[in-house]
Amino acid sequence: MAQALVGQLGGQPVLILPEGTLRQLGKDAQRNNIAAAKAIADAVRTTLGPKGMDKMLVDSIGDIVITNDGVTILEEMEVEHPAAKMMVEIAKAQNQEVGDGTTTSVIIAGELLKKAEELLDQDIHPTIIVRGYKLAKEEAIKHLEKISQPITLEDKDLLVKIALTAMSGKSIERASDALAKLAVEAVKSVAEVKNGKIVIDRDNIKRVKKHGASAEESELIKGIVIDKEVVHPQMPKIVKDAKIALLDVALEIKETETDAEIRITSPEQLQAFLDQERKMLKDMVEKIAEAKANVVICQKGIDDTAQHFLAKKGILAVRRVKKSDMEALAKATGGRIVTNLEDLSEQDLGYAKIVEEKKIGGEAMVFVKDCKDPKAVTILVRGSTEHIVDEVDRAIEDALGSVISALEVGKIVPGAGAAEVEAASAVRKFAQKFSGREQMAILAFADALEIIPKSLSENAGLDSIDILAELRSAHEKGEKNAGIDLEKGKVVDSIKMGVVEPLKIKTFAIKSATEAAEMILRIDDVITASKVERGGEKTPPTETPEESE
Fold first, then answer.
1. 3-class DSSP state of 408
2. 378 an active-site residue?
3. Which 3 state secondary structure label does DSSP give 302?
4. Which partner from 26, 480, 514, 527 sits 20 to 30 angstroms from 493, CA to CA?
């Protein structure tokens, strides 16, 4: 049993932690944490690269996810171990910040810990390993920035190559060319230049998934797709040269704010009351017609009577549209969201060439298409089944993340393992400035970076030792773009081969992996509280065979 925290008082032990608390100290704690982190890295390692395999994840209610997207695998795995959870956090941070490179960051972190374990076995203190890793990380990032190349919005071919590299390995090889172009087109549409810097908000690219067609049929809509139908059967289903009123106001009779009672004593009074309600709704519709709107998109409800009047005027209307869709519509159509009908004027209307209701995958949706210079667009993601459409969506998400990261930083590096080997080579040269144990930690960092080309070649069924030796010698000769052609099993110039990645993916992966490894290495004491059962009684955690001995 691992020891609980115990004090000594006059020869009498004093229990400080409650009974059933587990405690692991020193090397035991480190080894346990490192083993858990390595297990997570090994779980995703086979998915890396264009030849990576997929994982099938089945949850407790039998739902299936088939993917080779690192962050999706780790999120679906429902990890319990605290050190393993830290590895999952790396993937999530990488996904949020960059949008791609999640598997890379987790594999590097796992390998850094594996190399650290070898150093711990040689009695090198964790603090020295952490210091060596920190120095090596800074050198690797500095060198990657030195070898990076600039990229701008005009380099369309390069941007498509970045998107293709991000999507490689996903099970959509046939459609990847078309999807890469879609991703680049979407990013270019919403990109804005502010103070000389390219700014892209990923939320301005909406993705709508619908199964029932092949991945090649995915399309970019220069506007917004609303998952709603037209409210009235008599309304037009298609409007060309649409002038769109975006309303954040209900086309209904409001309830009074205060408690009010209306006493009606005769049928004539009732009729007058109903006529007045009808007139108020008619006036609302007249106000919309006066502003020359022929499409109404409303965030709130539309009364049945108001629907009837709108239909008579030939106005297409959609109700109860999400706030996020309303904001996207304002950016796409150039319209202004109006909160008071009295303020509605022709200047507030948005424009789209076509607004139409179409049935996609058996569901009616409203398409607001062909807007002038839209700053929000939609990618309609298609796939033959739900599982395939989910994987196509994840591939597009990675491609968008990569292209956005490349443009925001404005720099790219060679892919296919070239960047990692080049960084490792620079770190080895840097290690010569140091001596003793620190140098060993820096060299271990360089070795750990080479896990990426090693995994790429192993996943493609190639001999990783031969490939790695060939790569190292090419980089030592100054061929900084030398990467692996996984089809031919040869070392080639990866930029000429068209395998390029954003600098941000690599630097962020190295940073987050190193920081997570450092944090795990610094832990020398794990105190696990005893579990509490429903009855309120504490149950001691189950012992592993090693602990009970």
1. helix
2. no
3. strand
4. 514
pLDDT band of 7, cuts 50, 70, 90: low
Quote the tokens at residue 433: 């400035």
Domains and CATH numbers, the chain: 1-21+529-549 (no CATH), 26-150+413-523 (1.10.560.10), 154-222+374-409 (3.30.260.10), 229-361 (3.50.7.10)
Query: pLDDT by residue (tens digit) across 415-444?
Result: 788 888 888 888 888 888 877 888 888 888
The pair of three-digit structure tokens given for residue 138, joined into one six-digit string: 């800074």
Q: Is the pLDDT of residue 240 over 70?
A: yes
Q: Which one of the listed residues 69, 303, 325, 348 is annotated catalytic? A: 69
Where does the pLDDT of residue 544 fall: very low under 50, low under 70, confident under 90, or very high at 90 and above?
Answer: very low
pTM, entire model? 0.71
Determine the pLDDT at residue 160: 83
Residues 6+ apart with CB under 8 A from 257: none
Q: How far apart are CA 136 and CA 243, in angstroms?
A: 59
Strand pairing partners for 412? 149, 502
Residue of 348, 390, 393, 398 marked catalytic: 398
Name 245's bridge partners.
Answer: 296
CA within 13 Å, CB half, 279: 6
**CB-neighbour burial class of residue 271 (10 A; exposed 0-12, middle 13-18, buried 19+):** exposed
| Residue type for position 45 | R
Look up 339 and say whether it is catalytic: no
- Residues 121-148 pLDDT 10s: 888 888 888 888 888 888 888 888 888 8
CA distance 505 to 401: 9
Q: Reply yes or no on whether 72 is catalytic.
A: no
Query: pLDDT tens-digit profile of 71-103?
Result: 777 777 777 777 778 778 878 887 777 777 788
The catalytically annotated residue of 103, 104, 165, 378 is 103
Burial 398-415 (b: 16+ CB within 10 A, else e): bbbbbbbbbbbbbbbbbb
DSSP reduced 3-state for 243: strand
**DSSP-based three-state secondary structure for 352:** strand
Q: What kind and span of H or E run contains 294? A: none
Residue 69 among the catalytic residues: yes
